[in-house]
Amino acid sequence: MGKSENNDLHFLRVLFGDAEAETDARERLAGAFPGIIYIYDTAEKKLRYTNPGFTSILGFTQEEVQGWNDFGDLVYKEDLDLVQTEIERFLKEDGQHSFNCRLNKKEGDWTYFRTKGTVLRKDDAGKPLSLLFVAEDISKEMAREKELLETRSLLSDTEELLGYGQFSWNSATNEFVWSEGMYRIFGYAKEMVPEKLTYDWFLSQVNSEERTMVDSAMKNALLQGTPFEVECTVEPQGLLPRLIVIQGKPVPSGSNGALKLIGITRDITESRIREKERERMIRDLHRSNLELEEFAYVASHDLQEPLRKISTFSERLRTRAAEELSPESAIYLNRILASTANMRQLIDNLLEFSRVSRNQSDFQRISMNDILEEVRNEFELSIEEAGVTLQVDPLPELEMNPTHARRLFGNLVNNAIKFRRHDEPGFVKVAASKLSKAELEHFHLPPNKTYFSIQVEDNGIGFEEEYANRIFQIFQRLHGKAEYPGSGLGLAICKKIAENHGGFIYAESTPGRGSRFFIILPEQQ
Question: What is the pLDDT of residues 79-88, one digit of tens each?
């Protein structure tokens, strides 16, 4: 053991009050501090002494340490420059210094330490000869700090993604603490606000006409111990006003029973602008629809009178001058009468479509089986003449307008009769099923309501699948009037009725193999 090493150990014996033996000194050091202690020789740049904790924590023995040159084998490579800088400080400055660094372990890992160092001995000229280092394992503390930083980063990213900020207000100290999100919402950089925020400063950012309202809401929440929510306009200095919503609640602060407010603030400026624009568009659309419906009703109603005159005078002409008309003139007259009949049917359907659009109330809980029985009676003659079988399975009770319900299913049954095939007997089946949870999700319907699907299936001529949406448009026809008469409004009326009842209708079909209409309706309005 060299002279320098003996002097260091002697100093330690005196420092720890043990002059008996080197072994006792080391044992006392190991028992007094649950970390590592080592002495660094500044001249030879080697470790002169390591306590037993050095071996138990890092795994290196005193013999292994003797061969090390400087700190390269002890300090983790990324922290080596930091430690070298700290060593230079010890050589230039008196006093204790503290730093955090990672020290290598023998098995290849590393451990974080908080290291405190001081000059142990100096020469006659005051130059440091050896340095004493005492290091405490802070790996768990650093892990917690890292986790905390990651959590803060996650919260900051979440605030930015969702567009909100967090705050707390200590009413006792008037201190107001902001998160990163609050700066983004207000449009302030950190250097633009006071170093220590206060509630009064925050309140000064609120529009002067709304300031009292916000102040009352927040203070009442503290007094009553209840949550609060308030909307207001903030006017950051030199920036555009922002519409925000503040939500918060009181929580205990300290052991004296005092309360502080914590909460979040969201910028709803853009969403409120979009909401206003959407409301305006809905109002404009609603007004436009009403005007169109009013126009259709008035126009259809006003067309009835001239059409009635054309029909009446044409009939009189055919009756009184039948013998005087040439065969060609008689054909022309018959075509006029046929056209007026078609026009009358079209006007009647237009009026019905307009009435369906305008009348969206008078909902009653009615049996769909009773409605289908009324439809059967209404089309009894057509069903018999066409040789069509109408099968109705058990159907649910729904809240509907009875008149509209009869028209909805009457149009579908009438279509099935009209577009039947002539090479086999016609068949129409009406059945129903309750929508499952998966079906509600598929159709984007509210999961807390009960919906039924009523299917009207036939074995008629069918249609191409590409026309499944077109057939529900007004005046759309897939066949000529000569072959299949009608106005092209029947299915459009069905669609309007289903929508007025909070549902919808769609169809599936294969040419030559029939069609299947699905009416999705809620049990209750």
Answer: 999 998 888 8
